[in-house]
Amino acid sequence: MRSAIVVDSTAGIDPALLEQPNIFQVDLTINFKDGEIITDTNEPEPTKKFYKKLVESDELPTTSQPELGEYMKIFDQIIEADFDTVFMFLMSSQLSGTYQTAVLAASEYDEKLSIFPIDSKGVSIYTEHVVLEALRMIEAGMSAEDIAAESRWIIDHSTIYVAIKDLNNLVKGGRLNNRQAFIGTMLKVWPILYFKQDGGLGIYDKVRSLKKVQRAYKKIADDHIAKYGEDQSLILFAHGDAEEETIKIRDQILADYSDVSSWMRYLTPVIGVHGGKGCIGMATAVKARI
């Protein structure tokens, strides 16, 4: 079995990982009202530029998913590179049609490739973790069916949380009115959202102040580590151009744990459209059982 992995750009994975010959990516795009089109990325400079423009814009930009032909182009490249098995880890099907389009494209190649489209039921760093675990399982010689099943188990035992700072971003998106945002901003309210088991978004809590976000995240992380153990747990972080605040939260949470794996990334612009500048994400994740 020669296996390739396909992700979408919202995974925001390390550029060094994308350089591996068996990793392929389809890109989403962001479309501003002034006509500027941005390709989704987690590179620091263009991402910072995006968040600055997002705050200055009166309207939220729109996002565009990859077209069917982009997946087919990648499948052709995979066949040409002599891979026979493909694992696709894609953003939550509850948030975008990206997953459904991938499934449709995969159906055109079922006689040429063994393709396993997997709904990550989330986004960002958490998807990168599942990719890394899939690579570890491939290296261990597991069957394609077992890798797909274990990847889904990892997804089902992991959760993403996002604390929203910029309530005006919710106004632009029609999820709050100006009065609600004004009151929330004055009271320093941070809604904390989370990805439910089906990949949809729910409200975990509403807290007043960044310090209370930190406390909420600390409890979530402590409970997760108590359940799965330090050696099997990961606590991952992503942010909407809020690196300093996220580092403080990360360091406080991980101070008591020397064996818990962790890393931090920017939330890509496509995710930033919805989370807004200053949002802080945390994922509780588990390792594959190998």
Automatic annotation (TrEMBL):
GO MF terms, alphabetically ordered: lipid binding
Domain of life of the native organism: Bacteria
UniProt keyword Membrane present: no
PROSITE patterns: DEGV
Keyword vocabulary terms for this entry: Lipid-binding
Keyword Lyase in record: no
Function as written in the Swiss-Prot or TrEMBL entry: May bind long-chain fatty acids, such as palmitate, and may play a role in lipid transport or fatty acid metabolism.
Name of protein: EDD domain protein, DegV family
